[in-house]
Design brief:
With 271 residues, this protein is α+β, with helices and mostly antiparallel strands. It has one domain. It has 6 helices and 8 strands. It has a 5-stranded antiparallel beta sheet, with helices on both faces. Strands 6-5-7 form a 3-stranded antiparallel beta sheet. Strand 3 and strand 4 form a beta hairpin. The N terminus is likely disordered.
Length: 271
């Protein structure tokens, strides 16, 4: 495509991961208000005090109603969490502290852009705006201290960081080993169409729909049948997810008008 950056396919797929989540299936979900009171995977993902040595890691089971009928991986995210032994709890807490420290280096969108992070798609309610860092997106190995994607509550220069997204593996095998323990529920997306215009990444259709390559070709886009594995981590103080630190959705991320109403691609105006 004219003006498209020359990026190898592996890096391209990695870059695209943020887009699928940002343009998630908002139009497919009918959120039940009672879900916002669901038990948290992490009672407090990170402490409000930067002096706190580790975040609190809750081991109680999470409950909730599945709203992702079109995505089996996301259905698995509603499974109850398994209890953690002391050693595993300490390990995952240490990983979450490392993740939080990275997120706090880029408190606003302007900080992310200054560091080379690129917006993928736009802001989508419940999942935020994803800014992808090429340097950390090219590999397939998980490292809590090297998140490929930063998540914000909007796309303006002053929009605030809310969490992170990790990706690993090819998407074909089993979910990768990520955070310690069994409660980081990884997922993939399918039927994704991405268009590059200059350095901008656009998606004309929501993910996990019946999108075909022919439809994507009609938009002069690149069709991805299935993405790499990915997981969200809501580790920023003040942005603890009501549904847990590794929940896919964040119930407090909404459009600027307070609704979850989006355009056809699944985006709306954030902060």
């Amino acid at each position: 495509m004219d003006g498209s950056p020359d990026i190898d396919r592996r890096m391209l797929v990695a870059l695209l991961v943020g887009i699928f989540v940002a343009a998630l299936v908002v139009a497919l979900i009918s959120r039940d208000p009672s879900d916002d009171a669901a038990a948290s995977v992490g009672a407090s993902a990170v402490s409000e005090s930067s002096a706190a040595p580790t975040p609190a890691v809750e081991t109680a089971a999470a409950t909730g109603v599945d709203h992702h009928d079109a995505n089996a991986d996301q259905q698995a995210e509603s499974l109850p969490n398994e209890p953690l032994d002391d050693a595993t709890r300490e390990q995952v807490a240490s990983q979450l502290v490392a993740a939080r420290e990275v997120a706090l280096r880029y408190p606003t969108v302007v900080d992310a852009e200054a560091a080379g992070y690129v917006l993928a798609g736009g802001f989508a309610p419940l999942v935020g705006a994803h800014y992808v860092g090429i340097a950390n997106a090219a590999g397939n190995a998980f490292d809590a201290a090297k998140p490929p994607t930063l998540i914000y509550d909007g796309t303006s220069p002053t929009s605030r960081v809310t969490g992170l997204m990790y990706l690993a593996g090819s998407g074909d095998a089993d979910a990768p080993d990520g955070f310690a323990g069994p409660n980081d529920h990884w997922h993939r997306h399918s039927g994704v169409c991405v268009k590059f215009t200059s350095a901008k990444m656009e998606i004309p259709f929501p993910a996990d729909r019946d999108i075909t390559k022919k439809m994507c070709d009609g938009k002069e886009g690149m069709f991805i049948d299935r993405t790499q594995w990915m997981v969200h981590a809501w580790v920023v103080p003040g942005w603890d997810s009501p549904d847990g630190v590794f929940s896919h959705d964040h119930a407090d991320l909404h459009c600027a008008d307070g609704t979850d109403d989006t355009d056809a691609a699944g985006f709306c105006q954030g902060t």
